[in-house]
Protein 1
Amino acid sequence: MTLLEIKDLCVDYTVGADSLRAVDQVSISVAAGEAVGIAGESGCGKTTLGLAVPGLLPANATPTGSVQLLGEEMIGRSEDDLNELRWTKVSFIFQGAMNALNPVHRIDRQILEPIRTHEPNTASTAAKERVSQLLELVGVSPSRARSFPHEFSGGMRQRVMIAMALACRPSLLIADEPTTALDVISQSQILSLLGDLQREQQLGLLLISHDLAAIRRTCDRVVVMYAGVVVETGPTAVILGRGTEQRTAAHPYTQALIKAHPDLAGERVLAQALPGHPPDLSIPIKGCRFYDRCSVRESICHEVAPTLRPVAGTAHLAACHLVGGDVT
Amino acid sequence: MSVRYLARKVFSLAVTLYAVATFNFLLFHVLPGNPVRLMARAGHLDPAAVAQLKQLFGLDRSLPIQYLIYLRDLIQGNLGFSYVYRQPVTTVLGPAIRNTILLLGTATLLTIVVGVGLGVIAGARANSRTDTSVVVSSLVLWSLPTFWTGMILIFICGVWFHLLPISGINTLGYSFTSLGHLVDLGKHLILPTLTLALVNVAEFALITRSSLVDVMSEDYMVTARAKGLRRRVIVWRHGVRNALLPIVTATALYMGLVLGGAIQVEAVFSWPGMGLLSYKAVLSRDYPVLEASFLIFAVAVIIMNFASDLLYRALDPRVRQS
Amino acid sequence: MSLDERPGLPVEPGEDTLQPSSRIPWWRAVWGDRMGRVGLVLVIVVLALVVVGPMIFPFAASSFGLSANSILQPPSGGHWLGTDELGRDVFRQVLVGGQISLLVGLSATAIAMVVGAGLGLVSGYYAGWRDNVLMRITDFFLVLPTLPLIIALAALLGQSVVITSLVIGLTSWPQTTRIIRSQVLSLRERPLVLRVRSLGATDRRTIWVHIFPNVSPLIFANLVLVLAGAILSEASLAFLGLGDPVHVSWGTMLHFAFTSGAMSRGAWWYVLPPGIGIVILVLGFSLVGHSLDRILNPQSRGAR
């Protein structure tokens, strides 16, 4: 059964009289126990997409389309109905060094809180026992349960966040830049932890990250987003595989991202920063959104927006006129 | 809370109190308008009488000596002798302080409950219609002169409709023995309390609102929503609990303002407290009472600040343990 | 040639401005904000009435006879707002009294701004021990209860427009110092300011040319709020009988109304107008102040 089925999701932000479509006709599915990565520069709509799943978008955002979690439609659901699914079916992990834990409450209380809310019948001792197990699971000594968030390092705080996310045994875990702003060693440890937990607990994982290496390490499939649309999707091994010979990233944007990434560019190749920045989405774009920054653009790219089409087989798709052999 | 922290705080409290005492001395003994000179100016006293008065108040000594005498008297709890009441100032102050604490305590409690409540309602939904109306009505209330608000309430409740007593602390005589007297006291308390609360509520509502608005955009508030908590839990347990910190700090600072309001309210409603006492002292130029009143007001605010520092530390685990 | 125009010292555009919005004139920004616009209208209406009013309205002559039928008379065709306890025309008094309230408010604010902004600039710019000493003093005055202090000072120094202004001005500065100081502290670490200083610009020049223009919008926003507070302080002080007995302000009017028994006689026409004048003027200034504050700090206070 499909765990998460996002179909034709659009998210519009209104700022004053202006409107901006941050996510445009995005379709993604995550199977139970599958790990999917969403890649792209900041400002590509990745976070908006992630927040849309549990209905956490800010008040000035309007989602349309369909987001089904375990068969339940999330779009248009009331806040009370969403609350039944939040944390019990889908949990969210925020950026590592950010203020995602409440600074004035002890961490055991914060982990306990969703258990008490969603499983009011669980005995107090059992709930506390679960908190200890969760902390142990993520590698935090249960003796530190009575500490405040500021008493932990960034990496440890992120472990606590993960323990909290697993408190109500969700089926889907959305992690938005979970390793950003952590030191390199913590990054690696958190990624291993996430990967292990995902495999052991058969969790669905949606990993949102600009870090391609993190996605390659943890995810089965990757979705590359640019300016609110999906430009390429396929198995991680195919798109971000080890070494240039195995890698068949098809979209020029994905290729540019890989080149810009020191871990993926290969040892002898100097990482090349991707010049320019994503387009202003408040101005309508007729053709390909990557046109301005593309090094291999053709005249058609300016006129017609490309749609996703198979690159090799049905699993690997890319939205580029130069892919699939029908370039005019 | 560590002993060392407490010791440091108490030391700084002592320094501030000393500074206030000195400031008070400078104000009333060194400024050109000292009592005897003012009395001499007003009452056509002959030089011999002036000299006698100066001796009486110790003004014939040098300033440093006067200062030392002043400090000694202060430590001994001697605040001088009232010209008007013909009693030691401390005797006059006692009941006044009690009455003011009664009035201010009731009013501040009401103010905090209503003000923080309104601020939370507004701040939890920033820029909504409710929010805007809370902000605008707070600004209107803030613009009301306290004494004038009291006068208007006297018109409405006292002069036109005869609903409530408008002056003094009781009608039956000063005793707390029977329930009737307590009810009487309560009735007298209503209008002054209402006046103070009405004007001060605005300050608390605005502070609470802006503090909560800042907190509402924090990441942990999104976490709280993602956890599927009910809105009330999100706003109070996560939002207001964090927003309390700046509120505590600001509250201490506004105690000075609240005291200013108390003087006006007591003057308007003849509430026999510190405010009425200093108002009367102003009118009758009873300088020893005025001096003592100022000192007590200042000390009260400083102690409130000290308390709020400790409260802040108790509320914020980050400060508590660093 | 000013330092920042030297070749080899590129200055990025916009680097040295506080907010993009600080480039549009403040009254336009305030006018564009609904609250601000209401505030401006209120202030302008009161200003017009108070400044121009006494010259254009026909006032009935005051009948000083103290006869029972001329004092504390309710509004009539001759006296639009009735008469006071001495038989004077209340309407005229309100307009003239507004001038005094405004005058004291403005002069007190001017004093508070010079002291407050001056200390804030010095304290924030020099940091170090000067900052330490100044901040201790500022905090001390911040804690002192303002109205009791003003009362004590006024009772000791006497009653006149000048003394009232001085007393209120000299007790209203600490908040301004705090606000300006923290802004200056962040400004002095800006690349442009650091560069200018490392090139040997004098402190005075750095403060005036590079720091002051950047804090002036903030000073202005604060000024409007201090002004609102000063008008209220004057009213309270005058009500307590410490106003200038010759130049009667709104607060002094209310003092006379209260002490002359106008309350028990139900002379609402004597009590309402001066109070409403204070409320409208103070509300007008505080609306403008809050509006400016939101324009200058859009991220704080959660305003749009």
Protein 2
Amino acid sequence: MTSPFRTAEGGRIDRATTLEFTFDGQTHTGHPGDTLASALLAAGRHQIATSIKLGRPRGIAAAWAEDPGGLVQIEEPFPEPMLLATTVELHDGLVAHGLPGQGRLAEISDSARYDAVHHHVDVLVVGAGPAGLAAALTAARSGARVALVDDQSEAGGSLLAGTDRLDGAPAPEWVAAAVAELAGHPEVLHLQRTTAFGSYDDGFVLALERRTDHLGTAAPKHVSRQRVWRLRARSVVVATGAHERPVVFSDNDRPGTMLAGAARTFLHRYGVLPGREAVVFTTNDSAYDAALDLHRAGVRVQAVVDARPVGSPRREECERAGIRVLSGAVVTGTQGVERVTHALVARFADGEVGAGSAIACDLLLVSGGWNPAVHLFSQARGRLRYDEVLGAFLPAEELEGLSVTGAAAGVFDLAGCLADGQRVARAALTALAVRPPGEDRLPTAPEPVTPAAPLVLWRVPDTSGAGGHTSFVDLQRDATVADIERAVGAGLRSIEHIKRYTTIGTAHDQGKTSGVLTSGITAELLGIPVQATGTTTFRPPYTPVAFAALAGRDRGRLFDPERVTSLHDWHVAAGAVFEDVGQWKRPRFYPRPGEGMEAAVLRECVAARTGVGILDGSTLGKIDVQGPDAAVLLDRLYTNMISSLKVGSVRYGVMCGVDGMVIDDGTVLRLAEDRFLLLTTTGGAAKVLDWMEEWAQTEWPDLRVHCTSVTEQWNTFPVVGPRSRDVIGAVFPQVDVANEAFPFMTWRDTTLDGVPVRLARISFSGELAFEVYVNPWYGVAVWERLLGAGRPCGITPYGTETMHVLRAEKGYPIIGQDTDGTVTPHDLGMAWAVSKKKPDFVGKRSFARQANQDPLRKQLVGLLPVDRRTVLPEGSQIVELHPDGQLPPPPVPMLGHVTSSYRSAELARPFALALVKGGRSRIGDTVHVPVDGTLVPVEVTGSVLVDPEGARRDG
Amino acid sequence: MQLIECPWCGPREEVEFHYGGQAHVPYPDAPAEVSDEEWAHYVFFRDNTKGRFAERWCHSAGCRRWFNAIRDTATYRFESVHRLDAPQPHATELARSRRSTAP
Amino acid sequence: MNPGPSHAPRTPGADLPEHPDFLWRDPEPKRSYDVVIVGGGGHGLATAHYLAKNHGITNVAVLEKGWLGGGNMARNTTIIRSNYLWDESSAIYEQSLKLWEGLEEDLGYPILFSQRGVLNLAHTLQDVRDSVRRVEANKLNGVDAEWLEPDEVRKVCPIVNTSTDIRYPVLGATYQPRAGIAKHDYVAWGFARRAHEAGIDLIQDCEVTGFATDGNRVTGVQTTRGTIAAGTVALCAAGHTSVLTDMLGIRVPVQSHPLQALVSELLEPVHPTVVMSNAVHVYVSQAHKGELVMGAGVDSYNGYGQRGAFHVIERQMAAAVELFPVFARAHLLRTWAGIVDTSPDASPIVGRTPYDNVYLNCGWGTGGFKATPGVGWALAHTIAHGEPHANVAPFTLDRFVTGALVDEHGAAAVAH
């Protein structure tokens, strides 16, 4: 396909290189510097798709992110739903098609990389148009740390889209010089293709940099496709320009209808004529530039239709060029099928439409004025005011640390924008106590011509007979003036209700062109000021951002850090199956070839109960508590007495919340009068440290105590079973491991080849056991020593599953499994761990509440399935049968639930732990557990099923 | 994301901090002697002020110290931060006569 | 209407049903009402509807400080389910779900209640235990629930990443087939229109500034539109409850937090159900027009600002792409926030206050939308009879004193 609408020369495209792309199955060509939209326009194609609800043809209506018409689906190089043809940079091999409404996600996963960078600056300038460049230059010249971000492929903004001259030369030359100067300042970060999409508190601005999309398949794989910049600026200068606003009239959606400024952009920036015969419909002076520029480029401008009765001082300029100017006239509609063929033009006075005629054209340019792009200001909670003259919302206040300049602040002439950008930057520097630069010259811009006042015209009365049903306000939602009328007629007054009733502003463009129009039309219909109607809230993001870009690197294994112990590689080599416990990877069991979990766990359990087993317990939380008042703090936080613990001894302790519910448990080693080592659950370590520090700092700041996490400073290896004494004795021959010399619940320090090791007689299985503590640097070596010494007695590594079985057989609860935040120590049968001597500890007072006295509180008990076969699923509910032996109809009263359930090698039958209402009073009863549609009878027992006398702990 | 002034470390990103709710809620001197209702108020009830609010924060990913702040819960703006050993800020100003009209 | 020439087929499903031609009047407040409901959100409007429909009480005003249904009602992710753990919770949510099943007919409004099912994913062994516990409790309470293994999860929702080599593999899920979503504005407007038709005054831009009291009774509600005398007052202000109870000198154990949510552009159907995950924090559905609707985590600090911090959204996106790799190039189109009033046990507080004629309805946290018809029904009953309806009786303010909490966070694991 050729590009018949490409100009012979000009534009900022690289005509020496030709790119090939496919749109809707047709091959086209374009050049580097083109967007998909400009290349399609060059080929003469306006229509992109059909509309979502009505199936009407829709085309390119603007030149950048405000375009409501040109939604496309990218297919190659990788499927991406719903982008604007106007913002897709052309590259070789691009395959795309128009989208009627819904985008399509890829079915394969996206292998592109995404990342994020934090960057801190003194001044962040958003937008590299004239105001933004002036502001950035001033800030840079002061030596301040500056970031300049702009969403387009090159800096310049409106200067690339017109015929402005600065210092007597085409404005892009000044832009190039400014960019070069900025590059010479070492403290300046200048990013193009970077859209600031969110503005948050304290100068926090998020920007998305599109790093490789424009390279297509040539994009290097090692470079992230998109990058989120988390910019923290002491001062933000918003120089985001303005969006041109259309005027609504009947059939205003027909392809070939375009914002006037966009036509200038396509001409000057991309070297594209958007049509051959144009009608320009305007309410303000800015569109005259479009008319004159297109005329000079060879477009036949059939008429400038100016809604203002007096027209513009620029009328003469047009007439000299042979362009007819119709003042006091409006476009009332269009004709054509898939492209405009005629504009319907009529007299317009005092809001009334008069007689009209059709003017042939293939391009209808529209300008209803300009809406400052106040999104970032508004997101930062800046208040807006409605400006009656401009018919637009402007910043109504100064925000601390955020200022708005240029067209975004309602300044529309070039000299004014440059001066305003400089002024705002100097003020920002001064506020930051940075001396503004002495040498800070602005380029000379032509004297601005004072424009004639614009007319604020939201819509042209519909004389087409369609009753406003073809007067489109939000093209992406197919929402019309008639829809707004209907919403108002339904009794709605709030602009938020109007938005929801009509769905205006909820589509891809988030109301960039339709928002202010809706406020204006609604105000008109209700007969109230536009200020009273207001706008709907501007919400981040300014333009859509890919999920993956925001996910960044936090995917896959980096979604959440994996914590592993120093033995992890050993576990992997041993074939361990892992379990996620909090962020930790813990071996769950070590299957032998051909062995399933059940067999492996039974084997591991037998080893620990009859020989010796070894566990990597290094993930247990460890907190070093030091200070003269350490014992006082622990007495206040544990339910039992800790201060009476002797140095060298160990005690089990329970912690409760202020509500009296168990939050964690573990053992406490007293290392010295003023020093303790606390063991916590794996999952509870961080919470317990937080908890202790919170109390120590905020409630009892007088206590001289410090808490330090030492979880990762110690490996912990429980060596468990009747043969454990042999193993420990063999590895640590200098330690007297006899029961009398090293009794239960004591600890000893020793060394192994000069490496400090701590041994403790703690048992979470009921068996004789020693815990071995060593610096993780030596963890593997010590572990292997223990394995070596244990080989003669068949030492067996075991995982968390076996650990759980062993402890459950002894009735030891796992906090978080056998408890759920509603369980007291008494409910667990641990009244013995609740001090009666201490006047107070955290949670004590809650034990006295009414609900705590209820005899039907759920209590931890054991369950033995009567059939001796069924392993009750954990989580199963426990019910009482009706006297007739049947389940009553729902709701069925429940007695409690199964918290832990295993097959026991020791008992040669399955067993469970459960929380049961009034459980201890039901011991000996038979209750029922529904399992897969049958009722399994189970006997309620005490919670300790193995060695209730505690005869085994000493070996 | 806000920049929060840790009184020990200076301004840091919001993600480094842990929120601790209302400040200056004292643990009862003698819990055993308070009524169930008073105890329930200590355990569960906190002010939920819209506007200036005295609250606790912890610089948990930094110095791990707790501090107090006056922050506006409507604007989220921090007015001031205070070390725990500093006097209670504006205590009288923030004090409320909440129960004065209750039956 | 005349839509003009049609050139191409509409995009299937991208359209929504039309709203009625008339919704409600904007009346001036009268001097006095039998019942004044403070808060014109879902709960307030539903209460008004059921007062009229079930109890014939129509001399009622609903006072709304902004626009009707403009608070959490317009901001939530519309998940409806009843698979809560505790008997007390499942009773009210299940009754609510039954009302949802007949609501379109009751309201004569196309509320788009879509019973597409909800999956609650389990990622750890403890998640599995908690899930089975909840499923078994649900079944015994007459709530439809099942436990699905990962291959069954994949059948219900093929795009969930059930690979075993992700950071937190999916170990299974609970599934409630009758659960689903609805279109929030349509629900609010349906209730509002019915209330309006019954003669109830819906008064917008009417902010409560104080209460006139006489001993144990509130006699009038002071507002920005004058003082309105009230026989009975019901507080249905969600995140702003404390602002009202502070005026009354009632202490209520709720804390208001921002809760953010977000939406993508319209996409061809990819996600047939609702998926919630606690460990990989996601709850997502694909709404009627095709947009992905997703909720984020609660911002940690107290806040009334209807906005939150962006790192919460970034984390949400990471979780979404982790669980749904095909979402990678979907685009975040819009973010927003509501204000949730969270209670200490993650259960609501409904019922009496120290004032004889003031009823409280708050503490729904992130879960209020699904309860809309259920709580409206029960609160209307409570107001009409002066006695708590059985479904709200367990949710008294008093439970925090006795300790008889209905603690849904420990056990149910997933809020929202």
